[in-house]
């Protein structure tokens, strides 16, 4: 979050929450704290993150209740109980924010919350009136920083002073040009390295505001920029400083990816008039969810890859043992030859008995080895199914980010549970598990019947057994891992078109979706049985009919109809 956004959020907060009573706090993730303030008219929830990739302060809608048992949130709830937020301080272009709390407005400040939103150096501090640290987001030891040690019980010290030049509205064009021309770099880094409060996003905003994004002026060396274009940037720079100092803010999206808080309504084309509070919350929520989705996909992929290699290794070991066990007849024949000789010694008898014993042991081991091989083969098949579910989820982009995150979290939990894996979590969430459970896709056929599609093993199990009724039809790609698809035909007799689109969807949500046609098993629900010792979604069936599904047709259909279903 750039300094202009920070100041705009604090400006709105100062008008809205000063003074207000502290109510509660929670820590949903290791680097995020959320706390609630009650003013005269309403409640205000504030979220602060000291994550190195996205430090930020936002006003948010009431969040889900999660992370109330963390040590930091407990300390805030206990220490700030019945206290009032009476001051919000932030000095010009500094990224340090200080909230002051007193027993009531007008009293001496007793507690402070200090937020340092400075990239990888971001942190949160809970201080008493003597600036002693009561709690801190992350401890900093002496071997981690030569400037300051951060630990509970020590006295809080300010971060190093910013030695860059402070942007001034009184600076002339010549002075400004001389300041940024000291080192011949790209204009972007000349501004960043010279002035306080300048971030990559601000340089992008200045470029857009000056209508120079087409020539990518910020990436050009300052020595090769024309005087005309440089003056345009200077004029935009002056406008930014003026609006920053006068707290003249307005939220807008530009370039379909970036946002600004200082473009006025008539200066940028906005499809909608977006409120700053909602705009910032939605922006960060969307992009952070995308980041989390990418991380989860990478994590699950890694788990599947590692476990697949382990199961293949175990399977090969058993295969080698099976090959060896097939030599039991050779050991028997060797023993027979020993006892068929006319002159037999005691040591020959012992040797022959050992050969017979080894032969019998290998013969008995064959069945056990085959059983183990079946176990490892089933595990490899299950991993293929998980891989197919992950691939389908990754390829379908229509769902909202929250739904995708929940699905990925569930798939990861299912793999870990089924293969008895322990994934290190920084903190166990106390959120009710049922709140995290996602729902299967429901989509209507052309004739109005409902089709349910499982996105993970739990959903496959639910739609095949718990949600299904007599008369429903079950679809699955033949000899290929994928989702269970159920056509709710118990309500009325399905048409050929209903059955075909269900087969097309089963083909789309399978590992074979890149094929032109996919053979699909069609089974009546009454002929479907759950495999007792199998994991969720493991089924067997009788009386199967084979149809051909078209994945491309299924993809076109779901693109047109999925928005209505989500």
Automatic annotation (TrEMBL):
Superkingdom: Bacteria
One Pfam family, short name: NFACT_N
Gene Ontology cellular-component terms listed: RQC complex
Entries under InterPro entries matching the protein: NFACT_RNA-bd, RQC_Subunit_NEMF
GO BP: any one term: rescue of stalled ribosome
Stretches assigned to the NFACT RNA-binding domain: 445-541
MF terms (GO), sorted A to Z: ribosomal large subunit binding; tRNA binding
Protein name as catalogued: Possible secreted protein MPB70
Organism from which the protein derives: Prochlorococcus marinus subsp. pastoris (strain CCMP1986 / NIES-2087 / MED4)
């Amino acid at each position: 979050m750039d300094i202009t956004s920070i100041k705009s959020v604090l400006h709105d907060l100062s008008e809205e929450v000063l003074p207000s009573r502290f109510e509660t706090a929670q820590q949903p993730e290791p680097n995020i704290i959320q706390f609630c303030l009650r003013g005269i008219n309403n409640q205000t929830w504030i979220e602060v993150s000291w994550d190195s990739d996205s430090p930020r302060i936002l006003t948010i809608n009431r969040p889900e209740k999660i992370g109330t048992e963390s040590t930091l949130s407990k300390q805030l709830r206990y220490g700030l109980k019945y206290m009032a937020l009476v001051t919000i301080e932030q000095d010009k272009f500094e990224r340090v924010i200080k909230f002051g709390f007193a027993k009531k407005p007008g009293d001496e400040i007793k507690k402070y919350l200090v937020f340092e939103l400075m990239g990888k150096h971001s942190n949160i501090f809970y201080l008493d009136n003597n600036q002693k640290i009561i709690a801190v987001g992350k401890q900093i030891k002496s071997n981690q920083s030569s400037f300051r040690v951060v630990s509970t019980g020590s006295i809080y010290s300010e971060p190093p002073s910013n030695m860059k030049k402070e942007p001034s509205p009184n600076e002339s064009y010549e002075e400004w040009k001389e300041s940024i021309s000291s080192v011949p770099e790209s204009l972007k880094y000349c501004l960043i390295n010279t002035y306080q409060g300048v971030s990559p996003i601000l340089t992008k905003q200045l470029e857009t505001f000056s209508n120079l994004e087409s020539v990518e002026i910020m990436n050009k060396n300052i020595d090769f920029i024309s005087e005309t274009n440089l003056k345009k940037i200077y004029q935009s720079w002056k406008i930014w400083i003026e609006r920053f100092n006068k707290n003249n803010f307005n939220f807008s999206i530009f370039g379909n990816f970036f946002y600004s808080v200082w473009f006025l309504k008539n200066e940028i084309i906005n499809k909608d008039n977006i409120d700053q509070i909602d705009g910032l919350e939605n922006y960060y929520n969307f992009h952070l969810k995308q980041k989390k989705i990418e991380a989860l996909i990478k994590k699950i992929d890694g788990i599947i890859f590692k476990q697949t290699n382990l199961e293949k290794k175990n399977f090969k070991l058993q295969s080698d043992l099976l090959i060896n066990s097939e030599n039991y007849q050779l050991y028997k024949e060797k023993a027979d030859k020993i006892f068929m000789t006319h002159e037999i010694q005691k040591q020959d008898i012992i040797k022959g008995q050992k050969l017979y014993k080894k032969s019998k042991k290998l013969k008995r081991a064959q069945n056990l080895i085959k059983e183990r091989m079946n176990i490892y083969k089933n595990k490899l098949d299950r991993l293929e199914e998980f891989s197919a579910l992950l691939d389908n989820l990754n390829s379908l982009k229509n769902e909202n980010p929250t739904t995708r995150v929940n699905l990925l979290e569930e798939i990861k939990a299912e793999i870990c549970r089924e293969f008895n894996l322990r994934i290190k979590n920084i903190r166990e969430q106390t959120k009710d598990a049922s709140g995290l459970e996602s729902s299967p896709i429901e989509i209507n056929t052309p004739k109005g019947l409902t089709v349910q599609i499982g996105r993970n093993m739990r959903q496959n199990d639910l739609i095949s057994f718990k949600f299904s009724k007599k008369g429903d039809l079950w679809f699955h790609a033949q000899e290929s891992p994928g989702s269970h698809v159920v056509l709710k035909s118990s309500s009325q007799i399905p048409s050929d078109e209903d059955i075909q689109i269900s087969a097309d969807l089963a083909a789309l949500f399978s590992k074979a979706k890149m094929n032109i046609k996919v053979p699909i098993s069609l089974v009546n629900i009454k002929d479907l049985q759950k495999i007792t010792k199998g994991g969720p979604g493991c089924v067997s069936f009788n009386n199967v009919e084979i149809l051909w599904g078209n994945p491309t047709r299924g993809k076109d259909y779901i693109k047109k109809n999925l928005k209505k279903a989500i």
